[in-house]
Amino acid sequence: MLDNNIIQSTSSWPFVEVRKLLKDRKDIIKKKNKITFQTGYGPSGLPHIGTFGEVARTTMMINALNHIQKIDHELITFSDDMDGLRKVPENIPNDEILKKNLGKPLTSIPDTFKKFSSFGEHNNEMLKEFLKKFNFKFNFKSSTENYKKGIFNKTLIRVLEKYEDIMNIILPTLREERRKTYCPFLPVCKTTGKVLEIPLQSMNKKTGQVVFNNEGKKFETNILDGNCKLQWKVDWAMRWFTFDVDFEMYGKDLTESAILSSKICRLLGKNPPNGFAYELFLDEKGEKISKSKGNGISIEQWLRYASPESLSLYMYPNPKRAKKLYSEVVPKTVDEYLSFIEKFPSQETKEQILNPVWHIHNGNPPKEKVVMPFSMLLNLVGSSNADNKEILWKFINRFHKEIKPENNKILDGLTQYAINYFKDKVEPNKKFKKPNSLEKKALENLIEKLKKIDDSLNPEEIQTYVYTVGKENGYEKNLRDWFKLIYEVTFGEENGPRMGFFIKFFGLKETIELINDKVNNN
After folding, report:
1. Number of C-alpha atoms within 13 angstroms, CB side, residue 460?
2. Which of 244, 274, 422, 454 is geometrically suited to a Cys-Cys bond with 426, CB 3.0 to 4.6 A?
3. Nearest Cα to 499, choosing from 421, 451, 446?
4. What's the per-residue H, E or C state across 238-295?
């Protein structure tokens, strides 16, 4: 357990939210002697980073809770897999199968990947698989399974009993035309298998028997055992009520829905959970990341380019601020992760719990020495044409002979990530600058200077020589332009590594050959 004064005073958001939760729901939690957290997933598309973010951030809160109070807790990851498919996602193979099955529950549609019994089950399994990669502890619940097994039956009868009151909450929020046909219950058609949005004609509040108007024809069914599902806002409230949920975070775009669902939950007879509205994830164009569009960067892509821990880091800071999420943010996030790892041992406890790696590693981050930033590794990959880790390790061992892959798991992992990222994202976009006569002369002077200096110099001493050459060749007032010239000619990019460190790692002879080649062959 952490010192209580630190727990109560820290501004670290997981602790702030847990303190609030324990205070707001003190009597409820005392009665249950358990805290239930929930996250939701709509499996109409493959799991995306927004889904991961909810689970990662909620897990950070649970980690904080474990340092405040020892109490039984559960994280429910709920899949809305009984929803009718409204549109065909853009990133799915064999989408003609989906087109033929629009309107049907996701678990009644054949799997377009041909691996599982349904499209919904496939996406559920993908969700579970990637959450397990991160060692999250969660209890997966399927909407279809809970409806069909009767888990929701008691609450469904209660919704029917409160039908008029629920309609009074929902109808004022709808357009006039929609009000005429709205019903909280969505029956599943026995003929077509589709989820229908049709008006209710009559009901038996004791048995659950209902009659709908299906385009002029009577359609009789029962609301229990999966014959009907609930409209989204009512369904959300029903889950909170049934599972005694104490906390759920959600995207800012669902704030209005959360307000209405909270009213319905109270109407059913329980206090709604504490909520937390986070800002949305945006792609490089500033558009909301969507599971049906598959825009932004996928989880699989991130994990090809960087560690799971770096993705968790991306989720930690400022959840209430919108974040752009695309492949170019990966190197920066990895370097931030390394920086936080490096700072952690020298920090006091109150500073450590403000450090994101405390939350990523549940208070026990790795103690590995940080040898070089990810950005440097990317430049080494490009400069050495490395296509395997062994080549990169040869360069690393020039400067750090004592460093071995088996004792430096983070660095060893980064070498492969750097190769993957460089090949996929950096190399195709390189634009090497052809220097003019003055620029060429300045770079040739740099080559001559490098030929004269000693191999034993440290990176900062080498960096000073690079500065000096820039000043001597007309860049004394703007050294940024000098380094930009070096980067654009040598690496094909506007930004690059600290040259003293790069030269020390890559080697004086190799750097001279690299710059000379680029100057004369671009």
Report:
1. 0
2. 422
3. 446
4. HHHHHHCCCEEEEEHHHHHHHHHHHHHHHHHCCCCCEEEEECCEECCCCCECCCCCCC
The answer to whether residue 482 scores a pLDDT higher than 80 is: yes
CATH architecture of 437-521: Orthogonal Bundle (1.10)
Residue 381's nearest CA partner among 517, 497, 297, 498 is: 497
- Over residues 341-360, the pLDDT tens digits come to 999 999 999 999 999 999 99
Tokens of 412: 């060893």
Q: Strands, E, within 143-270: which ranges?
A: 185-187, 200-203, 209-214, 217-222, 228-230, 247-251
Q: Which amino acid is at 497?
A: P
d(CA 64, CA 71): 12
Measured distance CA(130)–CA(123) in Å, rounded: 11
Alpha carbon distance 340, 210 (integer Å):
59
**Strand residues in 19-83 grouped as ranges (E):** 34-41, 72-79
Lowest mean pLDDT, pick from 148-157, 293-302, 395-404, 511-520: 293-302
Predicted local confidence at residue 294, as pLDDT: 58
Neighbours of 442 (CB within 10 A): 20
Q: Rounded distance, CA 331 to CA 311, Å? A: 11
Q: Mutual orientation of helices 255-268 and 153-161 as an angle, nearest 10°?
A: 90
The pLDDT tens digits of the residues spanning 36-59 come to: 999 999 998 888 777 889 999 999
pLDDT (mean) for 270-296: 79
With a cut of 80, say whether residue 292 has pLDDT above it.
no
Task: Say whether domain 4-282 belongs to CATH 3.40.50.620.
Answer: yes
Judged on CB neighbours under 10 Å (0-12, 13-18, 19+), 9 is: exposed
Token pair for 493? 């990019």
What pTM does this model have? 0.87
Cα–Cα distance for residue pair 240/271, rounded to 1 Å:
9
User: Please, which contacts does 405-412 make with residues 24 or more away whose CB atoms are closer than 8 Å?
Assistant: 408/368, 408/369, 408/371, 409/366, 409/368, 410/307, 410/338, 410/341, 410/366, 410/368, 410/370, 411/368, 411/371, 411/372
